[in-house]
Amino acid sequence: MADVFSDPLALFSVKGKVAIVTGASGSFGALAAKVLVGAGARVAVVAGKAEALAETANECRKLGGDVLEINGRPDSEEACAEIVGKTVAHFGRLDILVVASGKNDVAKITDMAPARFLDVMDANVTQSWLMARAATAEMLKQGEGGKIVLMSSARGLLGHPAGYTAYCASKAAVDGITRALGCELGPTGITVNAIAPTVFRSPLTAWMFEDNENAQNVRKGFLARVPKGRLGEASDLAGPLLFLSSAASDFYTGHILYADGGYTAG
User: Fold this and answer.
1) Per-residue pLDDT tens for 1-42?
2) Could you tell me if residue 90 is inside a domain?
């Protein structure tokens, strides 16, 4: 660990580290990949949408990054093992896992077929667990610890009136995985934490940022609960990501870091 007095910023260094980012075509995944690359990490970017994945990879390369593209999803034991295997074969090791893949499906409980509920649970919970499992096996083999960062949400703690039973349940389960793995892996030097934002700008939430009466009314009601007085931007997640991916968070594990402008505080 860096000397906290002579070079405190070195605590946040990920230079030379090898990271996997799943969901790298999404808003948080793309940001995570670019932040890690910009900080000097070598990154395997993973996504099912080949065109969007290539765009993220090219943006990372423009930042001078050493990037590996893996077109696929962490939707099975075999797929996750392949993602880790390709990363290690290319870069020689694995230090950081960021699981940014997932989905939402909004519907009242009486309108949501069980298959739709299970699909959200699979994308957000099972795939997070499978990816963490594959990364853990490699990190334990290396014997040098590691960083696992999962994607949660304020909805893992709080309910929502507009048909969020699947999403809220899935993110609460991600929180449970984070805490349980944090306890399980604590002695190994592998930390497991989650970032839990509230609403932040993405293609799915772009309508909330629009300048029309409906969006303004929705924002007004929502922002009454946000002490910072604004909606989130993807860039608001950059600091928490770098913290949880670096030695600065070595004593933090099983922690849910709320990047929510104070939303869950009141």
Assistant:
1) 567 899 999 999 999 999 999 999 999 999 999 999 999 999
2) yes
Name the residue range of residue 40's domain. 8-197+236-259
User: What distance in Å separates the CA atoms of residue 235 and residue 93, rounded to the nearest whole number?
Assistant: 28
Give the whole-angstrom CA distance, residue 82 versus residue 74.
9
Let me know whether 208 and 150 are in one domain: no
Same domain, 155 and 216: no
Do 156 and 171 contact (CB within 8 A), yes or no?
yes
Q: How many CB atoms lie within 10 A of CB 201?
A: 16
Global confidence as pTM:
0.95
Between CA 120 and CA 142 the distance in angstroms is 33
* 201's tokens: 């700008």
**What are the tens digits of pLDDT across the range 49-100?**
999 999 999 999 999 999 999 999 999 999 999 999 999 999 999 999 999 9
Q: Which of 28, 212, 210 is nearest to 102 (CA)?
A: 28
Which of 164, 167, 258, 263 is an active site residue?
167
**Same domain, residue pair 147 and 211:** no
Helix axes 127-142, 77-91, angle to 10 degrees: 40
Say whether 195 sits in a helix, a strand or coil: strand
- Closest Cα partner for 147 from 39, 49, 33, 242? 242
Do 137 and 207 lie in a common domain? no
Is 164 a catalytic site residue? no
Q: Are 22 and 45 in contact (CB under 8 A)?
A: no
Domain count, the chain: 2
Residues 108 and 220 in one domain: no
Residues 95 and 116 in one domain: yes
- Same domain (yes/no): 107, 219: no
In sign, the C-alpha dihedral spanning 116, 150, 229, 204 is negative
| Residue 23 resides in a domain | yes
